[in-house]
Design goal:
alpha+beta, three-stranded mixed beta sheet, disordered N terminus
């Protein structure tokens, strides 16, 4: 997911191309940048969650009805890039090419947690690099020139798009989504549909399969929430299958400890 206000970038890691995920990414981008831009441009060739019919040289794009309603409630005008027009689409593709800078880390991370950190680091790096044209970094440019042009974040209007879903399918990353955060379960439930509900005190997320609770997590605002047992089984079934259990468990605990430390530092 990419988001551009003039020169400031927002990147986040996603595991699917669902429309709900797109809404969550846009909402996160609005908070990341402190407001909503007047226009957002979309490369409609591969954005089926945005348009029902792509724009061509001879016809206009037809935006998906639910997406169009979201754009109105959020307060931005969606614009579909015209094919073969570098003045518009080129700006979007130029940003997409920056992801190639992640390729040097290919096969050098164990899991989604480490990849999430790499994406966050790349985003921070891109926003701190000086532009040859302006002599400023995107962050500096945003503070001095661009932030004032953003519209105020909509209050409560977007809540209906993020209502809690009672049933969710477990992704191949062994996660289920609840209130825009991901919570782990045992890998054997990949592809199966589970039920999610809050505890009576609304401080824990309970996950059920066929009426039996299979996992309980503290309710947090962290994007990724792994239970130690789930993380252990993920590593054991894949990248660390050749290791013994004690070594995998030690790595699991150290990795989750570091992740919690980084998340705590980011919140400060």
């Amino acid at each position: 997911m990419f988001y551009l206000i003039q020169r400031k970038k927002f990147l986040t890691l996603t595991f699917d191309r669902k429309q709900d995920t797109l809404f969550e990414c846009l909402d996160d981008a609005f908070y990341h940048t402190g407001g909503v831009p007047k226009e957002i441009w979309f490369d409609n060739d591969n954005m089926r969650m945005v348009v029902d019919q792509s724009r061509s040289q001879f016809s206009k794009a037809h935006f998906n009805e639910r997406f169009y309603a979201f754009s109105k409630d959020a307060g931005f005008q969606p614009i579909a890039c015209r094919p073969f027009r570098p003045q518009t689409k080129g700006c979007v593709e130029a940003l997409a090419r920056t992801v190639d800078r992640l390729r040097v880390y290919n096969h050098e991370f164990y899991d989604a947690v480490e990849l999430c950190h790499l994406v966050n680091d790349l985003c921070a790096e891109l926003n701190s690099e000086l532009s040859q044209a302006t002599g400023q970094s995107p962050d500096e440019r945003w503070w001095t020139k661009e932030k004032e042009h953003l519209r105020e974040l909509p209050k409560n209007l977007l809540n209906p798009y993020f209502e809690d879903f009672i049933r969710r399918k477990v992704t191949k990353e062994v996660m289920v989504i609840f209130r825009k955060c991901r919570y782990s379960v045992d890998p054997r439930y990949i592809g199966k549909e589970v039920e999610i509900e809050l505890s009576d005190k609304q401080d824990h997320v309970h996950i059920y399969y066929n009426g039996e609770m299979i996992r309980s997590h503290p309710l947090t605002s962290k994007p990724l929430n792994y239970h130690e047992e789930d993380y252990f089984h993920i590593l054991k079934s894949d990248v660390m299958s050749h290791k013994d259990d004690d070594e995998i468990l030690a790595y699991t605990r150290e990795s989750l400890k570091q992740y919690d430390f980084v998340e705590g530092s980011d919140e400060e």
